[in-house]
Design brief:
Blueprint lengths: L9 H7 L4 H9 L1 H25 L1 H13 L1 H4 L18 H31 L6 H28 L7 H36 L1
Helix pairs in contact: 2-8, 3-6, 3-8, 4-6, 6-7, 7-8
Amino acid sequence: MSVQSTHVSPDHATSSIGADPSAHAARHSGLLPLAVVLLGGITVWLSLIAINNITDFGTNRALLEQTISMEALKEDPLRANGLEWRAMPESLAVPALIAVIAHQVGTVALMWRAVATGVRVLRRKGGTGLVDFLRHTNHSLVAFLGLFIGFLVGGLWFGYWMHLGPVQQVHLTLLIIGALVAVVVNLLPLTARALVREVTE
């Protein structure tokens, strides 16, 4: 009488959890839902910032004019006397703000694409997997982080930290949150590989 082998191959184990075992593992570890929620949160945040910049253009133009002209610092007899040569004409505020809004709108579009990809992975719909989510998210976060690094560097050039502290804090906060989201998202492959090994071994 022959005895049939009961060995389960890794391929069979992998097929039992779906065509994309990494996505399955990331989803059930809880890290993928966390990453999608965090990414969705900062996407909504940046979307509102872009909408505010468009609908309240005048306020943001005045803020940018104040920053690049360095008027507040020129009126101060003590601070930033050695930086005043960096001031630029107020007329540049409008094209600069339009460029910022264009960058924000483009970044928001990339981020919403990444969020939609993450939701599809969570719902197991479509052919998009974990690799697509990572790629779309990292592309969008490059644009997101680049925006706020640019704000911080530009603001430091014009000395805005001396008179626009709350604005600088918003930029720094968004930079830190964006970096944390990038860390969480890029931990997904490591977590997924570890969980897939547990299933297939």
